[in-house]
Write a sequence for this structure.
């Protein structure tokens, strides 16, 4: 595949996915080539390769995944084992900044020339000179690491003051710290401090068998369970060269769309609740509850946990179930249309939504806003549309986009995606082929790698997997689109007032655990 | 005179004891309108009982003001409840304060709560206090305008005289009071921290006005504040009834009118509570900086009411 007219020696790994090796020094050039072509950086992570005999042994590696016109390019660069360093990419792709900081915290790989080198995921669980994702890291439950603080950026001047919010909030939501610098009620600067839900998921993957890995992948961020599990399974199947039965592929698509509808219904309710229109909240959540209960009845789990397994799926759908799902999707579509009319005609709600938390398309493009929030800011990327894998290659997904980039645009995209997903669900139910639910996985033949790429409800979800020669997991990196979108929230709230922050935040609804790992 | 004093005590106690019931009723109606099953109407009493049984957690750097404020707020609301005619008119306590002083009593409670919120120095307390003052300084003049319209009709700022004029003299339609009534409803939502100005049930710290001020309170202090909030809603409802629907309040010294007065009060409160929850169910909270516009409209309506009084009624 060529990027911006230049050949980077990328070989096809799977449909729409390309793989290549470059030298660390070539990374910035590659990044610029991707940028010039209109592409984006999706993920950046590192790995310890010192234990792998033969394969570029005795070194670390930094990996980057770029989305380009031709598909997804997964590029690796081998780094020196003594002083692992690579050139900074955040000058070209600002979204790389936090990923680079996390890569340093976890593996000690330095991004040379980066402006911001503060810690990111490390709080107090380990010391500054320890790197938990290195294979020789000794997990000691003993001494707590010394507290070394975190320097926030201060805004100075007359009348400016700070409000620290969180990590513990008044509602039952995930922990994150937000440092507002305000003047009156107007936000001058917002700085996020995340990492409070760091659970060492990536370390936990090491040495697990493939089935346990699927369960763990699905729990990286519970609201995107099916997306993460599917991406993980896709990576594993790609690495092992497994073929998934057609019926399983279609059921996976069904699960992903069910998950998308459930999340969008919940978020649309929350958006009403955040402007004190509890009526909307109750109605959307009633629909979501009906949806989840049907999932429990049909597939055995409200949120479809562990229904996707390596090699296929673990739940089937019979004809009566098909009818029930189709009936409910019709009913929900009708009710959501009614609720949308209420939202559309509610003057106060529209006043709160419109022009609040604007991310302009140019800014979104520069900072790499992705997924649902990106589509509301004219960033028209949707893997189901541009790079469809089975079953989406036979479904013709319509992309929902907006240009305004405000809360209203994000709500509109959600509404459009609910209707589109309900349509897709019925299309899948119509075309669902017969066949096996799962195929046995081939045994690993030496060290092998794969990359799964799924358009979850929040945005594109990537899972990179390396399986060791003994058939167990060696390195798994799950990537949530929240990595790219959290920094945009910092920018999107500027100039807004403090009491509008929760609404703006909810319109993005980003994952904490998905990026804290 | 003794009957008067007894009636006064009974009326004030009834207000204090029944205020949570009104809150429970409003919550119940709201739940029904949102399409969910409602908590029992006695839920506010249970909450109060729970809070009174808990141990108070108080910040180390809290000054005596912080501990004192809940009692002060509760006392202010109890006083206000005693001043407003609910069942019987012209009780012995009524001359103690007129409508303007009543606005002052509400303001006193608010000042103490705002000071207490700033006392412990958390950012949310200060934030809430600041916003409360923004809302209050716009709401109070509008409330005064409403009172002035009623006072111009009855030539007095004394609440009993206003009720006497409106309810017990010959029946006259006052167009000015229609404007005042709308203004009064708008001011009441702001003063009682209800939708569309504030949201009493939110858990989002950053959006709170009233709730942000009392975030640090717990146990008996919180119970007193919650009770005072219920009492304030009751008093405002009673005020609304006295000004705009005063028919049924027993005239001075007419004891045999009392049973009917009690029934009328319960009926009016029930309808008023249901109407409040209906308006809340269909409204969303306005953006904070729209609140001044909202209250500016209330003020304008209050002034219009006065003008119409001079144009049509003098």
């Amino acid at each position: 595949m060529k990027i911006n007219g230049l050949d980077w020696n990328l070989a096809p790994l799977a449909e729409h996915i390309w793989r290549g090796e470059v030298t660390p020094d070539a990374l910035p050039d590659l990044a610029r080539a991707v940028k010039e072509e209109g592409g984006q950086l999706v993920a950046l992570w590192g790995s310890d390769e010192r234990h792998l005999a033969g394969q570029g042994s005795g070194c670390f590696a930094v990996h980057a995944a770029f989305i380009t016109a031709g598909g997804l390019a997964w590029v690796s660069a081998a780094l020196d084992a003594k002083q692992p360093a690579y050139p900074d990419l955040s000058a070209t792709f600002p979204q790389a900044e936090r990923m680079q900081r996390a890569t340093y915290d976890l593996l000690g790989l330095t991004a040379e020339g980066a402006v911001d080198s503060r810690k990111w995921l490390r709080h107090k669980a380990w010391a500054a000179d320890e790197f938990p994702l290195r294979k020789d890291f000794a997990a000691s439950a003993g001494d707590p690491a010394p507290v070394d603080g975190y320097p926030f950026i201060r805004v100075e001047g007359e009348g400016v003051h700070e409000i620290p919010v969180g990590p513990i909030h008044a509602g039952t939501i995930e922990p994150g710290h937000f440092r507002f610098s305000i003047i009156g009620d107007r936000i001058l600067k917002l700085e996020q401090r995340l990492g409070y839900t760091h659970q060492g998921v990536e370390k936990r993957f090491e040495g697990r068998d493939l089935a346990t890995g699927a369960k763990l992948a699905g729990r990286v961020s519970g609201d995107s369970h099916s997306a993460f599990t599917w991406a993980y399974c896709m990576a594993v199947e790609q690495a092992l060269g497994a073929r998934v039965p057609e019926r399983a592929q279609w059921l996976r698509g069904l699960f992903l769309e069910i998950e998308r509808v459930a999340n969008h219904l919940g978020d649309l309710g929350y958006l009403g609740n955040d402007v004190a229109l509890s009526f909307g909240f109750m109605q959307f959540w009633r629909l979501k509850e009906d949806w989840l209960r049907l999932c429990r009845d049909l597939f055995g789990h409200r949120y479809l946990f562990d229904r996707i397994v390596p090699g296929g799926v673990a739940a089937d759908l019979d004809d009566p179930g098909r009818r029930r799902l189709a009936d409910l999707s019709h009913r929900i579509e009708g009710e959501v249309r009614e609720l949308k009319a209420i939202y559309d005609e509610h003057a106060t709600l529209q006043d709160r939504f419109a022009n609040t938390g604007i991310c302009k398309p140019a800014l979104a493009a520069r900072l790499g806003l992705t997924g649902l929030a990106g589509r509301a800011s004219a960033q028209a990327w949707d893997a189901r549309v541009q790079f469809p894998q089975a079953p989406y290659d036979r479904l013709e997904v319509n992309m929902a986009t907006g240009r305004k980039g405000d809360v209203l645009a994000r709500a509109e995209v959600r509404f459009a995606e609910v209707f589109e997903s309900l349509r897709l669900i019925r299309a899948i139910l119509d075309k669902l082929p017969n066949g096996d639910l799962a195929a046995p996985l081939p045994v690993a033949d030496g060290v092998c790698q794969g990359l799964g790429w799924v358009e979850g409800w929040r945005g594109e979800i990537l899972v990179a997997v390396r399986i060791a020669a003994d058939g167990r997991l060696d390195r798994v990196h799950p990537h949530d689109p929240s990595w790219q979108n959290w920094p945009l929230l910092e920018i999107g709230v500027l100039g807004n007032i403090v009491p509008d922050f929760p609404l703006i935040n909810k319109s993005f609804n980003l994952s904490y655990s998905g990026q804290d790992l | 005179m003794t009957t008067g004093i007894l009636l006064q005590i009974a009326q004030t106690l009834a207000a204090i004891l029944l205020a949570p019931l009104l809150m429970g009723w409003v919550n119940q109606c709201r739940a029904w309108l949102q399409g969910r099953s409602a908590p029992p109407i006695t839920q506010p009493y249970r909450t109060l009982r729970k809070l009174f049984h808990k141990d108070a957690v108080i910040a180390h750097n809290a000054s005596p003001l912080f501990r004192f404020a809940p009692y002060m707020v509760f006392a202010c609301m109890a006083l206000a409840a005693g001043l407003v005619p609910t069942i019987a008119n012209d009780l012995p306590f009524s001359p103690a304060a007129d409508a303007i002083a009543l606005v002052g009593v509400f303001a006193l409670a608010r000042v103490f709560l705002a000071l207490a919120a700033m006392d412990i120095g958390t950012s949310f307390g200060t934030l809430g206090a600041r916003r409360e003052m923004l809302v209050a300084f716009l709401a109070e003049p509008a409330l005064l305008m409403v009172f002035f319209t009623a006072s111009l009709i009855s030539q007095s700022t004394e609440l009993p005289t206003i009720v006497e004029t409106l309810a017990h003299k010959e029946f006259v339609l006052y167009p000015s009071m229609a404007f005042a009534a709308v203004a009064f409803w708008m001011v009441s939502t702001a003063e009682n921290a209800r939708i569309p100005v504030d949201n009493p049930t939110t858990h989002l710290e950053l959006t709170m006005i009233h709730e942000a001020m009392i975030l640090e309170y717990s146990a008996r202090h919180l119970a007193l504040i919650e009770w005072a909030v219920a009492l304030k809603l009751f008093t405002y409802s009673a005020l609304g009834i006295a000004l705009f629907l005063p028919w049924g309040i027993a005239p001075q010294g007419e004891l045999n009118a009392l049973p009917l007065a009690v029934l009328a009060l319960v009926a009016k409160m029930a309808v008023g509570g249901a109407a409040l929850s209906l308006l809340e169910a269909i409204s969303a909270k306005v953006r904070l900086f729209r609140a001044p516009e909202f209250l500016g409209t209330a003020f304008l309506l209050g002034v219009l009411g006065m003008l119409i009084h001079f144009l049509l009624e003098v």
User: Anything to note?
Assistant: Chain B has one domain: 2-313. The radius of gyration of chain B is 19 Å. Chain B touches chain A at residues 30, 33-36, 123-124, 127, 131, 195-196, 199, 201-207, 215, 281-290 (CB under 8 Å).
